[in-house]
Amino acid sequence: MQDYPWWTDVQRELAKDAQKFTDEVLIPIGEKAVIKKEYPWEGVKAIAKKGWLGATIPSKYGGKQEEWGVTGACIVTEEASRAGAISAALSTALIGATHQILHDGTEEQKQRWLPKLATGELLGCITMTEPYVGSDIAAIETTGRREGNYYIVNGIKRFQTNAAAADLYMTYVKTSEDQDDRKKYRHLTGMILEKGMPGFSVERVNDWAGSEGMYNCYLRFDDVKVPIENVIGKEGEGWKVMMSGLNIERALGGASPLGLMRESIRYTKQHLERRVQSGRPTGTIATNHSKLADMYAKYQLCRLLVYYCAYCADLNREVPIEAALAKLYASEVALEVALDGIQCMGGNGLMKIYPVERYMRDAKLNQIAAGTSEVLRLLIYRMGSRVLAEDLKPHVRAFDEELGCPLPVGTPPAPKAPANERDVLKVLAEEYRINPGLSMTIEDMKIYLQCSDEDLMNYIQALEEKKLCQTWRNSRGQVELVRATLEGIKEANPPEYYKHIPSWVFPDDVF
Ligand SMILES: Cc1cc2nc3c(=O)[nH]c(=O)nc-3n(C[C@H](O)[C@H](O)[C@H](O)COP(=O)(O)OP(=O)(O)OC[C@H]3O[C@@H](n4cnc5c(N)ncnc54)[C@H](O)[C@@H]3O)c2cc1C
User: Mean pLDDT over residues 426-445, rounded?
Assistant: First the structure.
């Protein structure tokens, strides 16, 4: 496994050891479990013995967090993802129950559960999705009714990875019907449900594309009595607890497909170097070369994103954008890499004697589980707009009379107090010369106009009544965008003001 200059010696050693262990022990066990289609218990026990399940747990609870960091957790996740369904068990255990107990649990809860999670004596999983609740996870319908020192939990969850095998279920339930709580995201509570609690049962085990042998279940809760000691955080803080885990979940979600990408490239390269067609190895064919180069580039870029994110997280920086980008990019390119691998291998690529077709199915899962690619794009759009707000501020431009085109001015002009609505119209008409076809925001207008919001609105309203400007209002009725109407453009300046005919145009052609 390639390392990075910022990795510590311990992380480098971990990577070397994890790669060797995966090649020599995990892959043979994992591949056998896939073919036999059985839950990879042997592999899970093996990674537990190596301490991988304690990757994110501090040493005082028996884990390796200080030594390995988020980087180490990503290293073992990348390696495990070369070994079939073992990877799903590992990543679910790292983010399900473990993270929430660590982040929001009481000291008593940490002492009670973390040492056993670190050694694999207990396995965790995360229990959010329901039959009627997917991406809109705040709409959870499973209820928790407080009765003395217990919550009585009723409902159904579905798509639960590692359920049935797991012992601790980090479950989110609705504990308030109050609309005000719902608006403030205080209607949910997180709690640990334990295997064996009366009324808590596996309703169905799904057969799913990819990760053969891994359990994915519907879970039923029929009047399950959950002691208040199992609540993580306080009642009503479920949303906060859920969100706290998302960054680490997404960073690991980015690391998960790295191994299957590497294995896709590995099998493809082997094939291209050994398959002879038309008298030469298929690897010498330019289109196959080019596919392999793209696969390699995607894998390398993806690793950079994941391990940069992990590095920032190890520096205790918040990584909402980095983690979302890592998860999104990894999910998208892993599928492309697996598909290109299959194409390079021809018919053999689709045969189950090689695992590449399975990598394709595993890769598809990453675009859906733990936040779909669409939902991640929505988040990245929102967060990106906020984080990059300063860097993406529009240029202030002015019309350069000599060159006859708008140019950035660097420093904005000093704003002037408008004497009347005509001065406001002039600004809108000038915008027609600078950014033709675009409206102005109120902030844009204030670059040129020094007046109160109220005065500006009055001028805009007066112009609108005369049909010299047009506004676009948001759902609260507030003016967000303003532009001059065609009538307003004509009214503001004489026709020559807008005219610009470049010197290369034949004068006789212009009228
Ligand atoms: C194999 C597997 C394992 C899983 N493991 C777990 C687990 O361990 N624990 C758990 O709690 N859940 C788990 N899930 C559930 C997973 O997180 C959800 O499947 C996922 O969040 C999407 O929900 P959904 O399937 O109900 O799709 P829906 O929410 O119904 O979405 C359908 C489509 O609409 C799009 N869409 C929905 N809302 C929006 C929006 N606002 N903007 C843009 N597009 C939108 C989605 O992107 C998607 O393409 C798993 C799912 C799978 C398939």
Answer: 97
Q: Residue 215 — very low, low, confident or very high, per pLDDT cuts 50/70/90?
A: very high
When the pLDDT of each residue in the chain is averaged and rounded to a whole number, the result is: 96
Q: How many domains, in total, are found in the chain? A: 4
DSSP states along 376-433 = HHHHHHHHHHHHTTTTTPPPPEEEETTTTEEEE-SSPPPPB--SSHHHHHHHHHHHHH
Q: Is the CB of 126 under 6 A from ligand 1?
A: yes
> pTM of the prediction?
0.89
Separation of alpha carbons 34 and 86, rounded Å: 10
pLDDT for residue 480 is more than 90: yes
d(CA 166, CA 200): 13
Domain boundary among 336, 369, 387: 387
Whether ligand 1 lies within 6 angstroms of the CB of 164 is answered as no
251 shares a domain with 239: no
Task: Give pLDDT tens digits for 352-366.
Answer: 999 999 999 999 999
Domain containing 292 equals: 246-387
Q: What is the CATH number of the domain that holds 194?
A: 2.40.110.10
Phi-psi region of 296 (alpha: psi -120 to 50; beta: other; left: phi over 0): alpha
- Is the same domain home to 382 and 415? no
d(CA 369, CA 135): 10
Backbone angles phi, psi at 177, to 5 degrees: -100, -5
Are 467 and 432 members of one domain?
A: yes
Q: Answer whether residue 245 shows pLDDT above 90.
A: no
Same domain flag for 47 and 139: no
For ligand 1, mutation pick of 129, 160, 172 (most atoms within 8 Å of CB): 129
Q: Does any ligand 1 atom lie closer than 6 A to the CB of residue 66?
A: no
Q: Is 66 inside any structural domain? A: yes
Which residue among 228, 243, 258 closes a domain?
243
Instruction: Clarify whether residues 218 and 321 are in a common domain.
Output: no
- The two tokens of residue 399 are 């019309």
